[in-house]
Design a protein that fits this description.
338 residues, disordered C terminus, 5-stranded mixed sheet, 7 helices, binds dinuclear copper ion, alpha+beta
């Protein structure tokens, strides 16, 4: 955006369009404000009372005029609606073929974990020119990830996963803020998105030894929580349904309905297994509510996703075997360019 305007920098593929719509709204508003003032002043002069005994001619209304002042505003409102809907869909449809980053908000900090295992707090490094998808939840109250330079903003809600995506167009350090009042240090719940050239980003990733990737850590949780005893050592199934390839597939439930096994479904089935029991299985699974943190839950979900052969969001991305060790390459969602 022009630097003479007190406006945040424009640094994502979405920000130009959002700004254009904003200035269009601003322009329409300014135009009609001026028009109405001008007409008011003109009428005051044109139809002023010229002598004390003047009686104006009665006016009975005008169908033509009334139609005109209904249809024109309708058409203008529709341009705003159509344009706004177009941007809304572009922004809130989950991104395809994106680099996935797991985000957990808590009072009062942001925790990030890359698919390759690197963790960050209140700072997130991302590559330039690549879609980045944040898969977000919170350990306590509602927070909100707001990145003004990218013109994106999404609530982070307890008990579910929400997503936000962006594709940065300029390297740099950009502020992000919590944009949902969440208690005493809400205003301090902020940090930086660091956008780097792709090669620099690869160096950064490999320079930050990471411990286990989320999928590998999830594999560990899968074993230590005893999931193996019902779902099998390699998630091939047993007393419980097979989990191999379940992510992204249609699951038929007891009762006949079917659901798509997305992140939200996997999460619900771990915390509240009786909610959606897979057809052919009894409601025998215990709840893991209270035994697993949001971060660990994301890791188990990442593990289950890594077992999937058909990913709904990036059909071309081949997941690693569960035994794969963390490396410098983003695994669960490689760049389409690579
Ligand atoms: Cu978190 Cu406001």
């Amino acid at each position: 955006m022009q630097s003479w305007l007190p406006f945040p920098e424009s640094a994502s593929t979405l920000s130009g369009e959002v700004d254009a719509l904003y200035f269009y709204l601003w322009g329409v508003t300014a135009f009609f404000t001026l028009l109405i003032y001008a007409v008011v002043i003109y009428f005051v002069i044109r139809y002023r009372r010229r002598n004390p005994f003047e009686i104006p001619r009665p006016i009975e209304g005008s169908t033509k005029l009334e139609t005109l002042w209904s249809v024109i505003p309708l058409l203008i409102a529709m341009t705003i609606f159509v344009w706004g809907a177009k941007i809304y869909f572009a922004q809130y449809r989950p991104a395809q073929n994106a680099l996935e980053v797991y985000v957990v908000g808590k009072q009062w900090m942001w925790k990030f974990q890359h698919a390759t295992g690197q963790r960050e707090i209140n700072e997130l490094h991302v590559p330039l020119g690549q879609r980045v998808k944040l898969i977000m939840t919170t350990e306590d109250v509602i927070h909100d990830v707001f990145i003004p330079a990218f013109r994106v903003k999404t609530d982070v809600v307890p008990g579910k996963y929400t997503t936000e995506w962006f594709q940065a167009t300029k390297p740099g350090r950009y502020n992000f803020f919590c944009a949902e009042y969440c208690g005493m240090n809400h205003s301090g719940m902020r940090g930086y998105i660091v956008v780097m050239e792709p090669t620099e980003y690869e160096n950064w990733l490999s320079g930050n030894a990471s411990g286990a990737s989320p999928a590998a850590a999830g594999r560990g949780m899968y074993e230590s929580l005893g999931c193996v005893s019902c779902h099998g050592a390699n998630a091939e199934g047993g007393r419980g349904p097979a989990l191999m390839g379940v992510y992204g597939s249609k699951v038929v439930l007891n009762g006949g309905q079917s659901v798509t096994a997305d992140e939200g479904y996997l999460r619900e089935s771990i915390l509240n297994p009786q909610a959606k029991v897979v057809t052919g299985f009894g409601p025998i699974m215990p709840s893991f509510q209270g035994q697993i943190s949001e971060e660990q839950l994301l890791q188990v979900v990442a593990y289950l996703k890594s077992l999937s052969t058909a990913k709904p969001e990036s059909a071309t991305a081949k997941p690693p075997p569960p035994s794969a060790q963390p490396s410098a390459q983003p695994k669960s969602s490689p760049s389409p360019k690579r």
